[in-house]
Structures are given as structure tokens and as C-alpha cells.
Amino acid sequence: MSDRSLLILPGDGIGPEVMDEVQRVIAWFGDKRGLGFAVSEDLVGGAAYDAHGTPLTDATMARAQEVDAVLLGAVGGPKYDALDFSVKPERGLLRLRKEMDLFANLRPAQCFDALADFSSLKREVVAGLDIMIVRELTSGVYFGEPRGVFEEGGQRVGLNTQRYTEAEIARVARAAFELARRRGNRVCSMEKANVMESGVLWREVVTEVHAADYADVELSHMYADAGAMQLTRWPKQFDVIVTDNLFGDLLSDLAAMLTGSLGMLPSASLGAPMANGRPKALYEPVHGSAPDIAGQGKANPCACILSFAMALRYSFDAGEEATRLEQAVERVLAKGIRTGDLLNVEGATPATTREMGDAVIAEL
Amino acid sequence: MSDRSLLILPGDGIGPEVMDEVQRVIAWFGDKRGLGFAVSEDLVGGAAYDAHGTPLTDATMARAQEVDAVLLGAVGGPKYDALDFSVKPERGLLRLRKEMDLFANLRPAQCFDALADFSSLKREVVAGLDIMIVRELTSGVYFGEPRGVFEEGGQRVGLNTQRYTEAEIARVARAAFELARRRGNRVCSMEKANVMESGVLWREVVTEVHAADYADVELSHMYADAGAMQLTRWPKQFDVIVTDNLFGDLLSDLAAMLTGSLGMLPSASLGAPMANGRPKALYEPVHGSAPDIAGQGKANPCACILSFAMALRYSFDAGEEATRLEQAVERVLAKGIRTGDLLNVEGATPATTREMGDAVIAEL
Ligand SMILES: CC(C)[C@H](C(=O)O)[C@@H](O)C(=O)O
Ligand SMILES: CC(C)[C@H](C(=O)O)[C@@H](O)C(=O)O
Which residue positions hold the site described Important for catalysis (chains A, B) (predicted)? Predict the structure, then answer.
């Protein structure tokens, strides 16, 4: 029995089919590299709602708390659009983030050389791009109370609360500074301190943490709207960006789209260390459930495979194995083997989801 | 005495020098087109703080309420960064927006043909781009209460409130639908209804207003993060975008940067009709105060000149004169006359702020 436990939650849409390929990659590491995993599987999102009337059962939640890492495919789809807010597929994912206290969402935006032409941006603007967005994931307006739609003076009022404590800001700032030290040693913090007091506190605390423990890292601050502009204008100016939950949602998606290949981008959501020293962790591709192509073998499994690579690096202290996997994916791309999302290019070889998995395993 | 009154607030940084050129354009319309304006001038932002210890005096506020339109240059600068939140230059602008109840911020993102190569995006992605972002400007997290930085259980907590009433959403939705009818007849509404209840209400009310009075306009909905992605990927898919104050802040700046020429983009902020039928209105360029180049005659006055063109169209019912001015600016660009921000291109003729103003007036 392996001491490395994984809970796989394929979810909705293309989640299950891309996760099938990840399962094969996981098995490969067990067979060939002596890195065995105890893998279990369960439901999340619409799939869980269909089976149990809730997007995440208490039993699944408890299981997620016990394992070393959760691997999630994607949640959501038009089938669930009319559901009440409280049982929407997204609530399953948000509950996992909140109850596992996964406060640091790592969203690399990397432009693969072989794919730079897929970007809507000019090649010179994005080729070689490699930035890391660290998004706070367990607080802010996503979880602040009070919230809801209320009746007030004869009309409806929609309410949400953006709330950050000093401790919440400090811990995600630390995560960003730590990452920066292992990269380009620069952090840019983004908020709207010119308009929001939560942003004023954000800037203050990031500055304090920096002065106290990370003065060796270069720190700058930018308003989030200017950040959106600068990401669009010249993204290579950034190394690590740290920002709150809502700004992080928009800015990390924007950064992802700069690379032109959403089907390639993984993410990690990390919390505090558990008793065994491993952090609470959930890994998931940046792309969504893509219901329009689900079940047709067209989905690109690379983002989900690369999410497993992040798990190797951040949960299982197997950075070299992670790099091995990442390089295998890069070699497959360089050979022109492509799923439909990356296909409209000369000399490319079309591949199904399964064939893409085959190619990665062959490269390994 | 003209019955068209304008209050000019040059503000900080490059505000005064670009506004000088606008003043000359305004005078030209009086002299040559019989469109006289009663122009007064006053302080806002850091300039007002320096003179009066507040970024907007009550007297200036009262004056702004009386005139037909306010023209604002820009506010802010590093000199004022350390000021308390309550007297920062931005508060002057925010007070104008709030007390004049300028709920509809019109932010066109247009790519001038002569400038398409300045974009970081590929020419084919942005050439001919013409979208209109309608941002709610007087509510949401910018103004919601409670707000502040508090001490709680021995640590600081930063708090802001996102709050929208049905009426606030409905009126900006109407503004967007009305504009769409005079353009491509399509509106895309953006929020985070999958995460925020204020977004749930936003989507509901926009849908209701559409069904009741604008069923002839094509309406779609998008989550704001997906919106940021789609704006980056293929912005020409949009005609009018309507969104809240904070999402609008980021998304309109992102859209502006797609065009590659921030120095060209105007904006209008409109409120309810006054007794004379004209809407409360404030016009300002999208660019900021650019303190690094202030006072050097390098600033591009076009965005501010085009803001006056929007005033002609939306405040003074002079759409043809607005078009005349817009076309004059386009012809100047086509001739290659450029301020420094748009200069690194072969065959361009460098121009100072003043020379750019001269060129526009000559073209008129
Ligand atoms: C699915 C949704 C709830 C989620 C979010 O808003 O956080 C997604 O957009 C993301 O970025 O992971
Ligand atoms: C200057 C600032 C307060 C303002 C805002 O956040 O609204 C600006 O970014 C804008 O978009 O007009």
C-alpha cells in the first residue's frame, strides 16, 4: 500500500475523459518509476448533484481532507444553469477550497514555444512568457458575510462582502515571496487601494511581510486595473503576481489567455502542511468543463496531466519527476501531435484525447 | 452668453496641458461653427488638495451640478500617494461621479486603423475593433457601506461591501440597450453570478429589462473571468458590454489596452436628464495623469479632445459636429503626425502636445 494517496474527482463535461488519461500517467509513474499512488475516485459538481442532490457530499468532503492530494477535472454545464445558487456545481469546488483552507492558488501562465502562434498576441509579446499568479483562494468576496439577495423597501438588493484579515493576507503574501525566491525573485501585488479599504490593508500587510522577512525579494504594487492593462501590453515584465480572490479570478484567466493555449494550463491550490508535512492540496486544469465537446474524445488532456505534474512537485517532493513529465508533454507538442484545440497549424498531426495520452506516455 | 455651459477641471499631471488643447478646440467650434460655450475652470484632485486641503471643494461640486457638462483631465500622482484615503486625488473624481449620480460610464474601445500596429495583439485581432463598454459607475463596491479597516480580535480587517439594488442595475441596463440599438444591436452582460449573489441579481434584472422593453436587442451573459478571456482572445465578438463598477474598471482598461493606443481613448459618464433635457455628464480621457511626462509637452491630447467630441454628441445633441471632430483626429493620425506615445513607427512626424492640437485644428 502506497503512502501517497490521491483522490480523483473527474467532475463534469470533459473532466472524466481527460482524467482517464491522467490515470494512465499516474499508473505509469507507479510501474516505471516506483512512485506508487493509492488512488480513489469520487463525484463532484453536476455529477454529484445528479447522484446525490448536492455538488459535494459530506463523505467526499471528509475523504478530500484525508488524502495527500485531490485531482479535479472540471465542474459545471448548461444542464445545471437553472439550479439554485446553493447547489450549483461550482459550490462543490468552492466548498473544497474553503474547508481544506487552500489559500494559495498557483496559476502559472506559461507560453509553450511550439504554441506561441496560437496566442492572439504578437509572438514577441508572449514567446517565452513564464509568470506565476498567486491568487488568494479562501476569502474575500467569494466567502464574505453578509451575502444574498434581499427585499428592501420594495425592491431586491444583491449583497456581497469583501473581507480580508491581516492573517489571510500575510499567509498568501508569504507563499508568493517563497515562490519568487525560487524563480525571478520579483513579486508584484495587485489591488485597488485607491478605491477599496480592503486593498489599503492588502497593500499594507504585503509591505510589512516583505520588510520583515523577504526584503531580498523585489516588491512592487499595482492597481488591479493597471495590472490588467500591463498584462495585456507587456506580460513579460512580471515574475510572480499576488492578488486577492476576485481580482485573481479575472487576472489569472486573462494571463492564461495570453498564452493562447488554455488546454495546456494547470493549477495548484495549496493550504497548510498536514501531519505528514505535505500541504493540503487540490490540482485542477484551468480550462472548464467544455460541455460542447464533452464525450467526443476531442478534449486536450495536457492541462490535467500537467496538474498532476504540479502535484508531483508540490505534494510529493518529486520535482524531478514533475520536470520529466512536463518535458514529455513539451516534446509531444514539438512533434506537432495536437488535439483539436491546437490544430489549425500546418504539419500538425491530429490526435484524440486518448492518442494524446498515448503520446505523452510514449515520450515518458 | 451661450446656453451651453462647460466646467473644465484639468486636474493633475498631464491634465492641464492636454486640456489647453481642448480649450482651443472648444474655441474653434465657437468661432467657426457657431457653437459657443460658456467655459469656466476649476481645480480637482491633487491640485485642489494643494490649494484647499481637499480633492474637491463644495463650491466646485456645486458648480459641477449646475453646468451642462464637466470636462476632466486626470487626477493623481506619486506626490499624493501617502495622503490619507479620504483626501486622495481619486476621492475628488469619485465624489463627482457619486453626487452627480453618473451611473452610466461609456468607454468605447476603438482601434484606429492607422494605429493598429501599436497593439500588443495581432493586427487581424484588433483592426477595426469597435466595442462600447457600459460600466455602472455610482454603486457596487466603490460606494457600498459598511467599509473601512477595523481592529477585530487583535488583528486588522479590511472590509468593503458590494451592493446593488434592482433600480441601479435596471437603469444602466437600459442605457446599454439604448446604445446597442444605435450600434450593432447586441449586448453582453458580465458578472460572477456563479459565485456572487449580487451577480445573480444583476443577471436577473438585466434579463427582465431585456424581456420587458428590449427584446429586439440580442442579449447574452458571460462570467466576468470568461469575459476577460474572450476580450483577449477575440474582442470583435462584442458590440456593447454592460457590467458593474469594479468589473467595469478592469474590463474597460483591458479593452482599452487591446487597441494599443491609450492616448486616444475618451470616456463619457452620464446621469439622469436635467431640467433642460441634457443629461448630467462628465467627460474624461481614459489615460491617467502620467506624472512621468507631465509638463514636458509630450502628452497626447487626442483622448481629451475626443472626450469633448463625446460631449458634443451626448450633451449637446451635436452628433455631426462630434463626427467632424473625430474625423479630423483620424486624418491627423493618418498623416503620421504623432505624439511620443505613438511614434516608434517609420515615416511618422513627431509632434508636441501643442503641435498635435494645431494639427487637429488645421484639419477641422
Ligand atoms: C468555477 C468558478 C467558481 C471558479 C472561480 O470563480 O473561482 C473558476 O472561475 C476558477 O477560477 O477556478
Ligand atoms: C482613478 C480611479 C479612482 C478610477 C476608478 O477606479 O474608477 C479609474 O481607474 C477609472 O477607471 O476611472
Answer: 142, 192
